[in-house]
Write a structure and sequence with these properties.
Elements lengths: L1 H7 L21 H11 L3 E4 L13 H21 L3 E7 L22 H16 L3 E6 L2 E2 L6 H11 L2 E5 L3 E2 L2 E2 H13 L6 E4 L6 E2 H12 L4 E5 L19 H7 L6 H14 L2
Parallel strand pairs: 1-2, 2-3, 3-8, 4-7, 5-10
Antiparallel strand pairs: 6-9
Helix pairs in contact: 1-6, 2-3, 3-4, 5-7, 7-9
Length: 275
């Protein structure tokens, strides 16, 4: 997410951006964060830091909690002290995945994994320590940057003659570049309205269908086989259904996310240019 914000920063000349890596600022150290805020006095803080290794979190519970929950609480507390608005990212994993219709922001949370629990704790701490917080829950995030499903599939389809992908987990992909633009458009319009919002691209698919679309757009000859979740056991439980309802986003900010296929086409095109 941070890199996607950096890419489009020049499109928002009304803002002065300061991008920080984890080496630049360890956000779990309260006094370090406090001293930084005292020096720079930012109006808005966008927290892109997260522990996202879903399976490793099952054996690295303390680290996941430190990054996703405790550090978020530190950041929120310091933001509140300096009257800084906070934007934080969360996940569909805060739900149990048993729904039959898209999850709304006010639906009961029930995380089924260490990762999901840590992200839900982060939500609670962010809102508790800084009322001026906007949380964006998202799902199936991908980008031309970092490690994600799209880049992994593109690589595997070049290396292997065949791959298997689960076809009984349903959700909506999120192109990180779209989410970054959504947030900066909201801020540029001066519409900072605290609360939790859901964001993903439009449409519901399963992972197998997502992989098929990637295959078609890249022209790969790799064979893709659909398999059930039971055939691909993982340490952490994945939601069987994690479609997010974006009605609140649209009603409050009048933003309608792009269809997932259109955004995937954009991402694949950029990946080809970067080869």
């Amino acid at each position: 997410m941070g890199k996607e914000f950096r890419v489009i920063a020049d499109q928002y000349p009304g803002f002065t951006f300061l991008f920080l890596s984890r080496e630049d600022l360890a956000i779990h150290h309260f006094e370090l964060v406090r001293n930084f805020f005292r020096s720079f006095k930012p109006d808005i803080c966008i927290n892109c830091a997260a522990y996202t290794a879903v399976d490793k979190a099952e054996t690295e519970k303390e680290l996941a909690h430190l990054v996703n929950a405790e550090s978020t609480g530190v950041l929120a507390s310091v933001c509140n002290e300096f009257s800084t608005k906070l934007i934080h990212f969360s996940t569909d994993y805060v739900f149990n995945g048993n729904a039959q219709k898209p999850y709304r922001e006010e639906d009961l949370t029930d995380p089924q994994s260490v990762y999901g629990v840590s992200k839900r704790e982060g939500e609670i701490l962010a809102l508790k320590f800084n009322p001026q917080t906007m949380i964006f829950r998202t799902s199936w995030v991908y980008s031309v940057y970092g490690k994600n499903f799209v880049k992994t599939m593109v690589r595997l389809m070049k290396e292997k003659p065949a791959v298997s992908v689960v076809n009984d987990q349903w959700g909506s992909p999120t192109y990180a570049a779209d989410l970054a633009k959504c947030i900066l458009d909201i801020l540029a319009a001066g519409k900072f309205i605290p609360g939790i919002y859901h964001y993903s691209n439009e449409g519901m698919i399963n992972w197998f269908q997502f992989a098929e679309a990637i295959k078609d757009l890249t022209g790969s000859k790799c064979a893709i086989s659909p398999i059930p979740t039971t055939a691909y056991p993982t340490l952490a439980k994945r939601p069987a259904y994690s479609v997010l309802d974006k009605g609140k986003l649209n009603s409050v900010f009048h933003i309608q996310p792009e269809p997932w296929m259109k955004s995937l086409q954009t991402c694949i095109s950029l990946l080809k240019q970067m080869e």
